[in-house]
Design goal:
The chain is α+β, with helices and mostly antiparallel strands and 556 residues long. The protein is built from 14 helices and 24 strands.
């Protein structure tokens, strides 16, 4: 390709590069005119996992023939043998027969006999090739660039008028012609940054009447990890690997070591019976009052020992022996009546036996607690985390703000009604502003973003001594009510399943200029593939809704 045809091809090459860079968010690097053995590659795209796509642009004022397409593909394949995709972008016209051939190639049609022989090396790579045929129409191409540029800047948080867009398109065409001869490998993030800086520098009026910046916008933000962005790479809570969980494990291990240092013999199979000559013994036994003569060994029963030996191995990798549970001749009173007015069961034994008995009792409780904590942490760790903030980049405060987030229907979202209840042993520790969920599911104020602790959760105060008169079922019901109340404050949004997807609606009272505030909590979701989050913002001060789009990366 030479002369005017060459200029035409390179111009379109620059346009194609721009279109792909603005519309395809999956690639990591782009390189124009890379250095290859035979210089057949015009554009090289590198995706996740080093997936390589190579493109050659061909332009002709004459009809492009089938033979030329086959030859160009074979030259491209010979130049880069390790590519995962090969594409020809053809600028010009061709016959109906050639168009049919292009369609067959793109639809992965079957080639047999002489046809397959004609293809040569191409025949072995048909699953990797594609052809894009375009008429060379300068006005049509300019319109494509304008649409792509407008969409790109909208996602970045800007809206430009038509005349400013036209000026930028003209500048970009000449700038990309220069860029396309440099052979530089550029990352997507760097290209986006360079493009925005280029717009600011070459078109200063974008800060005035030529450009209107969004006053309000939604962004991803994870303190200490991800700065403000419209794209986010998947992350999980990983609370099972957190310092808090490791500390709980260490507490159990330290307690086990303390218990193991107290060496005592096993129990002696002997049970003290009540005096059969005492006429009041059976009455005292039935009532559970003053039955001081009925005792049993306080040693943990063998089946329970086995259960906790397995738990210790699973939860903290401790290998315990049955002797770990020996408490000598420690005995506890058998109480047959449970009542808040009944005295505590009497314990008989030496000080050492009593100490070990209490430590084992605490150890068993802590293992049960750790087991339920691990179970709930495992449940939370299966979800992806979506950390969002609302930003006011305008010059006036906004009040009565409503934000609608739209998720694809195939994305599962945790709500206050769908979140699993923790076990009774741990539910209190997941409830309230000093609880675990508040720590791991909320942004906490830093120098860039305010927190959003709405203060809606106000648990009822307990009257001293009153809990002694309530049964276990009432206590459990109260803890469940408190948890449900708290998570309704944490996941403080309304959810609507609509035709376009699942819509989450949030409300913010006020946001001052140059301020940013987190959403009430991170969102927990399940998704198997990358997805878009559309947002729409209205406020008392906005004359029309602000719309934008975020990208959440699940793969890669």
């Amino acid at each position: 390709m030479g002369g005017k045809d060459g200029a035409r091809g390179y111009l379109y090459q620059a346009i194609v590069s721009l279109l792909n860079s603005l519309n395809d968010e999956n690639w990591k690097f782009v390189q124009l005119e890379p250095d290859t053995d035979h210089d057949k590659v015009d554009i090289a795209w590198e995706y996740e996992n080093h997936h390589l796509k190579v493109v050659q642009v061909k332009s002709s004022i004459n009809n492009i023939s089938r033979a030329e397409i086959i030859r160009w593909f074979n030259e491209l394949i010979g130049d880069v043998k390790n590519a995962d995709e090969y594409q020809l972008i053809l600028i010009g016209t061709c016959s109906d027969n050639t168009k049919a051939f292009i369609t067959k190639v793109n639809k992965k049609g079957r080639f047999d006999g002489e046809e397959l022989k004609e293809l040569g090396a191409l025949g072995q790579h048909l699953s990797k090739v594609s052809i894009q045929l375009e008429n060379f129409d300068p006005e049509g191409l300019d319109a494509k660039i304008e649409r792509s540029l407008n969409r790109f800047l909208t996602v970045q948080g800007y809206t430009l008028n038509h005349f400013t867009i036209e000026m930028i398109v003209e500048g970009l065409k000449s700038q990309f012609l220069k860029f396309s001869t440099q052979g530089t490998k550029v990352s997507r993030d760097d290209l986006v940054e360079e493009l925005m800086n280029w717009v600011y520098y070459n078109y200063p009026d974008v800060h005035g009447r030529g450009k209107t910046k969004k006053n309000l916008l939604v962004q991803f933000y994870l303190s200490g990890d991800k700065d403000f962005s419209v794209q986010f790479q998947r992350t999980n809570l990983d609370v099972l690997k957190s310092g808090d969980f490791l500390n709980k494990q260490q507490e159990v291990i330290a307690l086990a070591e303390k218990i193991d240092k107290i060496k005592l013999p096993p129990k002696v199979e002997k049970t003290e019976e009540v005096d059969s000559n005492d006429p009041f013994a059976q009455i005292r036994k039935m009532l559970g009052v003053g039955a001081m003569g009925l005792y049993a060994s306080a040693e943990t029963p063998d089946p329970v020992k086995e259960e906790y030996i397995q738990k210790a191995k699973k939860l903290v990798n401790l290998s315990l022996q049955k002797s770990f549970f020996f408490v000598g001749e420690l005995k506890k009173q058998i109480v047959t009546v449970n009542s808040p007015f009944a005295p505590k069961p009497d314990i008989q034994g030496t000080d050492e036996e009593k100490e070990k008995g209490e430590l084992i009792k605490s150890f068993l409780y802590k293992l049960d607690y750790l087991e339920e904590l691990s179970t709930y942490f495992s449940y939370l760790d299966q979800f992806l985390v979506v950390p969002l903030i609302l930003s006011n980049e305008g010059h006036q405060a906004h009040e009565d703000i409503t934000v609608n987030l739209t998720f694809p229907k195939n994305v599962e979202i945790v709500t206050d009604s769908s979140i699993r209840l923790p076990d009774f042993l741990v539910i209190k520790d997941f409830t309230g502003y000093d609880g675990i969920l508040n720590k791991i599911l909320r942004h906490h104020k830093d120098s860039k973003v305010m927190d959003n602790s709405n203060g809606l959760f106000l648990p009822l105060p307990q009257v001293a001594g009153l809990s002694a008169f309530r049964d276990a079922e009432e206590i459990v019901e109260e803890k469940v009510r408190h948890f449900k109340w708290y998570v309704s404050c944490l996941f403080n949004f309304e959810a609507f399943v609509e035709e376009e997807g699942t819509v989450l609606q949030y409300h913010f009272d006020k946001l001052n200029p140059s301020n940013r505030i987190s959403f009430p909590s991170y969102l927990l979701v399940k998704a198997d593939q990358d997805f878009k989050i559309g947002y729409e913002i209205t406020s008392q001060q906005l004359s029309r809704a602000v719309k934008g789009e975020l990208t959440y990366r699940v793969q890669g």
